[in-house]
Design a protein that fits this description.
CATH topology of the largest domain: SH3 type barrels
Number of strands: 13
Low-confidence stretches: 170-189
Distance between the termini: 24 Å
Strand order of the largest sheet: 4-3-7-1-2-6-5
Largest sheet: 7 strands, antiparallel
Radius of gyration: 19 Å
Strand content: 35-45%
Oligomer: single chain
Helix content: under 10%
CATH architecture of the largest domain: Roll
CATH class of the largest domain: Mainly Beta
């Protein structure tokens, strides 16, 4: 399966002619229309976005020939859109990478001992958080703030993120630890 990167999500209609508001997950708002056609998460719909303008940081107005009316734009609210990872330019510096590139890599401690695997990168408004699973002797997932202090080295060529000892300290797990996270997952299933 082709690896894809989420560029944004439709956030409703704008005006009466089919323009749409989008939440942007790109560095600059115009990036949502810079990498070719986008497709919905399920791959069923494709859109050729034209960037109109930024409303505010993280929110833009776009049009697309596939969105014919205000009702079409409103119906797309909440739909995330993606491009193939290969459509994005390579990072410009050695210490730059796309968050999507972290998914699937191993987490090791400073001695190289396995500490789990990154299965998701989330941002709920207070900064990026790594979801780590397959931890030795632990069930479920934990969520760890993604900071340079907690993850001082990322080596994508080896598929490894080096975690500082503090990354797995008691302050990063809710009371009851990963069991709460696993229980929440089972409720959602």
């Amino acid at each position: 399966m082709t690896r894809r990167v989420c560029l944004g999500a439709f956030a409703g209609a704008h005006g009466v002619k089919g323009a749409a508001k989008v939440r942007t997950f790109t560095e600059a708002e115009e990036g949502v229309a810079s990498y070719g056609p986008v497709e919905s998460e399920d791959g069923e719909r494709r859109f050729t976005l034209d960037f109109i303008r930024a409303l505010k940081p993280g929110l833009a107005i776009v049009t697309a020939p596939e969105i014919a009316s205000r009702e079409d734009a409103a119906a797309l609210s909440g739909v995330r859109f993606y491009v193939p990872r290969s459509a994005l330019p390579p990072p410009s510096a050695d210490d730059e990478f796309y968050m999507e590139d972290l998914v699937g890599i191993s987490v090791v401690d400073g001695a190289g001992a396995g500490q789990g695997r990154i299965v998701g990168v989330h941002n709920f408004g207070a900064g990026d958080i790594l979801e780590i699973t397959d931890r030795p002797g632990a069930a479920g997932s934990i969520f760890v703030p993604f900071t340079r202090a907690l993850f001082p080295a990322i080596d994508l060529s080896r598929g490894v993120a080096v975690a500082a000892p503090e990354a797995f300290g008691a302050s990063n797990e809710p009371e009851g630890g990963a069991l709460i996270v696993e229980a929440m997952r089972q409720e959602d299933a």
